[in-house]
Amino acid sequence: MSVTICTQNYRKAGRADGVKCNENCTYDYFEILKRGENLIALKLTDKKSFMNQLLCSEIFDHFLLPEASITKDASFTIDGHINSSFYSKAELEEEGLSGYTILPYAKLRPICYQIIRGRHTPVSFKFILMLSPENMENTLAKSGSSFSPDDIQGVFINLTFQNSQIILTTGISYSVFSTDRTLEHEWDILVQKFLKKHFISYEEL
């Protein structure tokens, strides 16, 4: 089962980790992952192979990267939201970013690689990978759920490395309240198919 995060004001907050809903409840996304409350998680068992795929291949390039944090001798935080003052309208179109608010992981992967590379393993890292609008629409169509793209704020893969373990969890942010869980089940299935397709070994926790 995917994690359902209460994110009524996700667009206003512009973040995936600290958000509020109309009931004035606050969820820290990374804290939920750390506590593991109501989560089914996957432990990635071949760390060296997976890190090579994550940082040195294009496997995850079609995802967006809203946020990442890496802790080594210092702490590094990457906010993947596009700085509108950096690109001209023509450049956004040339880069295939027109209509996007978050950069694809492909644009930030070289930066992540440069931070993580070195003789010492990071103390920890946390990556939030998010489906692009096009891939979210495809996922909604496959799920057969009652949701429209406007009902979904984001569909996520969350990667955390801590205590020598890499844990993958899934997450979905809704803009409407619903008891329909068909999308969550479909996303969990699709993620596991994705891992198997790319020979990423894992164990269910």
How many beta strands in the DSSP annotation? 10
* Basic shape: globular
Number of helices: 7
Q: What structural class is derived from the secondary structure elements?
A: alpha+beta
DSSP strand content: 25-35%
Order of helices and strands: EHEEHEHEEHHEHEEHE
> How far is the N terminus from the C terminus?
12 Å
Q: Supply the number of structural domains.
A: 1
Please give the largest β-sheet: 8 strands, mixed
Short summary:
The chain is of the alpha+beta class and 205 residues long. The protein has 7 helices and 10 strands. The chain starts with a strand and ends with a strand.
Outline the structure in words.
This protein is an alpha+beta fold and 205 residues long. The chain has one domain. Strand 2 and strand 3 form a beta hairpin.
Which short descriptors sum up this protein?
205 residues; alpha+beta; eight-stranded mixed beta sheet; two-stranded antiparallel sheet; 7 helices; 10 strands; disordered N terminus
